[in-house]
Amino acid sequence: MIFVIHFHRSKRPHYDLRLEMKNRAGRKVLRSWAVPKEPPRTRGVKRLAIQVEDHDFSYRKFEGTIKEGYGKGTVRIWDSGKYKPVSCKRGKIVFSLSGKKMKGDYVLLKFKGNSWLLFRK
Fold first, then answer.
1. Quick one: DSSP state of residue 46?
2. Distance in angstroms (rounded) separating the CA atoms of residues 32 and 61
3. pLDDT digits (tens, 9 = 90+) for 29-84
4. 99: which of 6, 40, 111, 120 is 20 to 30 A away, CA to CA?
5. What does the angle CA 69 – CA 70 – CA 76 come to, to the nearest 5 degrees?
6. pLDDT in the model for residue 48
7. What is the pLDDT of residue 6?
């Protein structure tokens, strides 16, 4: 399975963490979280991650400029690679990343609404 982290230079620059998963129809999608600050590469650093709509699997290679409307701005791949799900329970996703920048075990922990914490285990 793959992951990609986009850096989105928009009105409010942020990173988008995207994990390959299957939706309810069994189709591959990129489950996505907007992360306002650079994703943590070391233990002890926690980042807010706001879950946003799933993106089509083809978006995994997208780089370019969105010229109008929601998401207007430049999108570049910041990191990508393989990921392995370790466990996925309601409100807690544990996974291992093997990318160029992000390596190791990570946790997404839901705490309120669409708000999650992202940290390295």
1. E
2. 14
3. 999 999 999 999 999 999 999 999 999 999 999 999 988 877 789 999 999 999 99
4. 111
5. 105
6. 98
7. 97
Q: How many CA atoms lie within 13 A of 22 on its CB side?
A: 4
Place of tokens 């940290």: 119
pLDDT at 93 over 90: yes
- The beta-carbon contacts of 44-49 under 8 Å, at least 24 apart in sequence, are 44/119, 44/120, 45/119, 45/120, 46/117, 46/118, 46/119, 47/117, 47/118, 47/119, 48/115, 48/116, 48/117, 48/118, 49/17, 49/108, 49/115, 49/116, 49/117, 49/118
What Rg do the C-alpha atoms of the chain give, in angstroms? 14
Q: What is the pTM of this model?
A: 0.93
CA distances 8 to 47, 71, 74, 86, Å, are 16, 8, 6, 28
Q: How many Å from the N-terminal Cα to the C-terminal Cα in the chain?
A: 20
